[in-house]
Amino acid sequence: MKRLIPLFSVLLAVALLFSVGCKSDDDDNNPTGTNNQPDAWVGTWLSAGDNVAPLLVALFQYDSVRVVMNDDQTVVLSTHPAGGAWADLNGTYTVTKAASGDVHTIEIDYTVFAQAGIIQVISATPDTMKLEVVQTNPDIGATPRTPDTGFGSDPTLGNTNIQVYVREK
């Protein structure tokens, strides 16, 4: 029995070290965030009324747009035309953080089309998010904005394609 106690202690110590070593890997389930906090754009965002991009109002008569950006880089876009019903589109997104500043590049791939452009989250009460994306696939000849060119810099679209969202959760 005396020989089993040291062996049991060694096995317990090894098991403890193994579980502590594995725990750090399990805690890092957010490779894009920092300090295990989700990136600023992760959450549920609503654009309604005057916050809806004028271009979307003119082309599709949207009165509300909701986007849910998940930590696993999936996205759900819900659009609501005036007097109509909500419609959902699922997709994935990739944000490439700028070397400096808080305006980043975003690419969104839905099942029927893809978009690219820029995103900015402004920390406030409540947080707001600006998004300016254009369709890139199928190609419609639009040029996505970049952090260097900035919001509203397209000579044709100007500010009509800037979507402003308010964080819901």
Short précis:
The protein is of the alpha+beta class. It has helices at residues 4-27, 54-60; strands at 43-48, 62-69, 74-81, 87-96, 103-110, 114-122, 128-137, 163-167. The protein contains 2 helices and 8 strands; from the N terminus they run H-E-H-E-E-E-E-E-E-E.
Strand order of the largest sheet: 1-2-3-4-5-6-7-8
The percent range for strand residues is 35-45%
Look up the CATH topology of the largest domain.
Lipocalin
What is the second-level CATH architecture of the largest domain? Beta Barrel
Cα(first) to Cα(last) distance is 58 Å
Q: Could you describe the largest sheet, including whether it forms a barrel?
A: 8 strands, antiparallel, barrel
By DSSP, the count of extended strands is 8
Low-pLDDT ranges: 1-33
Mean pLDDT: 83
Enumerate how many helices there are, as a single number: 2
Question: Strand pairing plus helix content: what structural class?
Answer: alpha+beta
CATH classification class of the largest domain: Mainly Beta
Report the helical percentage: 10-25%
Number of domains: 2
What overall geometry do the principal axes of the alpha carbons give?
globular
The Cα radius of gyration reads 22 Å
Give me the strand/helix succession: HEHEEEEEEE
